[in-house]
Amino acid sequence: MVKNLIRYFKSIHFIKAFLVAFAMAIPVLISFYFFDRFEIGFSIALGAIFCAPSDVPGSLKHKFYGILISIILTFVITLLIGYFSNTLLILIPLLIILVFSVSYISVFGFRASLVSLAGLISLVLAFAHNSSDISVLEHAAFIALGGFWYLFLTILTELTLPKAQSDFLFVELLEKTSEFIKIRGKLLIEVEDRNALLEENFKLQVTINELHETIREVILDKRLSARFSNRTRRQQLIFSKIIEIYELAISNTLDYDKFDGLFKEHTEKVDEFKVLIFEISDRLIHISKVILKEEKLSFKTNFNVLLKKIENHIEIYKVNVGLPEAREGVIFLLNFKAYQEKQIRNLADIVRVLDSYAKNDKIRAIKDAEQFITPQDYDLKILKENFSLKSPIFRHSLRLTLTMLIGFSIGYVVEMQQPYWIILTIVVIMRPSYGLTKERVKHRVVGTLVGAVVGIGIVFLTKSAIVYAIISAMSLIIGFSLVKQNYRNGAAFITLYVITMYALIHPNILMVIEFRVFDTLIGSFLAFIGNYFLWPVWEAKNIKEFFTNSIESFLEFLKDINILYHEKGDVSTAYSLARKEAFLQVANLNAAYQRLLQEPKYRQENIAIIYELMTICNTYLSALSSLGMYIRTNETGKVPLEFEIFVKHIEINLKNAVHILNNKEFTASLDNNELETATNNYEEFFLNLGIQRDKEIEIGLPISKSMRAKLHETQLVSEQIMWLRNLSESLVNRVKKL
User: Angle CA(86)–CA(90)–CA(94) in degrees, nearest 5?
Assistant: First the structure.
């Protein structure tokens, strides 16, 4: 409990929440105590809170520009709404133009969507300005000042706590990767229903991919490297090892039907691997605790004991089953053991880097590191390209505009106490996807009701302004720190903050609570209905694009694997980028599938086929990754012609799948006879190697290094390339059904 609390205080979510609270509180206190004017401090505090959404993990450069654009946007919007708020004929068209245009800038990506949110919140809260003490221009200027104040605090925090963001991101990545690996271990022993575990892994892949992208932006940025060169290079090395651990875990996805058939009567062999995988997972958690200084670095493990047990079990399996029948299973287990040994070496590499963290020995930067940062295109052409009902963001902008207009009309006609609360609720709840909006509606309503009940209890228990101030400050910090992690609980604390703040200045707080709840319910209802009926974007209609992107990334990845197999040597930057793109596209596909599951059942068209296709794509990535991993980490011989034949057939199948998804014809034909010949040749070559080895055993010769390498390479490469060909056939067949 205490450790969890300490970790919470160290998290970037708490640091940011404290920063927001500090940025809001200081101007209000200074304004009130030194100038006896609450309005100035309140306007500056609003400016700070408007810029908070655009302050998300990433490089300082991107944070700076994101907050700066938010400052400009909120200043202009506050000024326009403030001047025309009492002129309805101008206000309504202005509202339509501003809501649509500000929400539409989300087409530029995630950070742009948060800048958009800042603009929309400032638009809503511009209606709250009714003070006669300061003019609209002064109010807007103080809001801009608050934004610059928050920007200053953000830069100061980055300079004074340079490790906080990156350390927290690394810890989160290590924990998620550990969880991913542990599920891989559970999949080995699960024989009844692996689907639930596989879906857990699909969800984790989405989160892990997002963390990869954020960390790349933080530690691979050239300017950041220039400021903290040696430390950042160490982080690059650790990050590359974590990615390799993750890739190895994905590469170890098995043909579980074949796996179960081989070792159905030898479950003890599988159990030992599960124990080893769990131990690897636990060591990642240990490393995360070392980074947070919760534990001292140690690499005293029972890896050697576990590996020895596995070796003994493999020997027992070989003796009990007997050669040559046991050969396929033995090679399979030895290859699987080799993968786990690579995981252990990666862990040891991370430990070595951490152990010498304070030393001055130089570490070479990763080659072409800056190329691995996913660039965000801010070309104005994107606005034109998305100006169509085919674009989800265009539809969302239309939907949000109309829904907010309805909410504004209700608040204006009914003359509620704080009518802008309705449209504020719509802004913070409504998202482009139906599923996410539905979840946020549910959490917002529950959180608001819980916060209101607790607030009423506090109001009845005490009338102390000091108690209200303390609870208000604590609720603000906790609420903001939980919004991303747990929206329901965050909404509850933010509601409690609003109630206790109003309790300090409003005589009839119970009426405030009543209106707060009522307005939230109306806003939530409108957001839900709007997302359901107004130009909805159902994921089943758009998921073909994600399948297309994934399959095209497989084609590029396979091409670079083929080049590496022929040319040998060091891994090229092109190979690494192709691998990264394949992982990114499959994670995007998994995210789209999760959104699809949140939609109404009758909207989940072809859900069974989509699930099969998604599973095939994830398995395909695993098989590709496994093949690439083997080729780049082992000495390989001359590439046989049979491999080329399989690659050609796989490429044609993948291209065919893409053309079917895009409703285009594909004319390339396949020669099944050459594929059958290639299969027979591969099998015959492996069989001949086995016969040769059996003869060596008969005369008492130990297995040579070259013989072992040939057996392993032939068995693994041929098995993987045949599996990839079978999966590509399955892709084509499922895509036709879709």
Answer: 110
Q: Is the pLDDT of residue 638 over 90?
A: no
Interval 556-566 mean pLDDT = 87
* Tokens 């499922």, residue located: 734
What's the pLDDT tens digit per position in 692-716?
666 656 666 666 666 666 666 666 7
* CA pair distance 157, 57, nearest whole angstrom: 13
Q: Do residues 186 and 274 make contact, with C-beta atoms less than 8 angstroms apart? A: yes
Residues 6+ apart with CB under 8 A from 130: none
How far is the C-alpha of 126 from the C-alpha of 572, rounded, in Å?
A: 54
- Within 10 angstroms of residue 564's Cβ, the number of other Cβ atoms is 20
Cα gap 434→490, rounded to integer Å: 21
CB-neighbour burial class of residue 594 (10 A; exposed 0-12, middle 13-18, buried 19+): middle
- Please tell me the distance from the alpha carbon of residue 465 to that of residue 560, in angstroms, as a whole number: 67
Residue 124 vs residues 62, 128, 654: alpha-carbon distances, Å: 26, 8, 49
User: What's the chain's average pLDDT?
Assistant: 79
Q: Kindly write down the DSSP assignment for every residue of 96-125, as one continuous string.
A: HHHHHHHHHGGGG-HHHHHHHHHHHHHHHH
CA distance 554 to 579: 9
Question: What 3-state DSSP class applies to 537?
Answer: coil
pTM equals: 0.78
Which range among 63-72, 276-285, 660-669, 705-714 shows the weakest confidence by mean pLDDT?
Answer: 705-714
pLDDT in tens, 162-210: 777 788 888 889 999 999 888 888 877 776 777 777 778 778 888 888 8
CA atoms within 13 A on the CB side of 320: 12
Alpha carbon 49 to its chain's center:
25
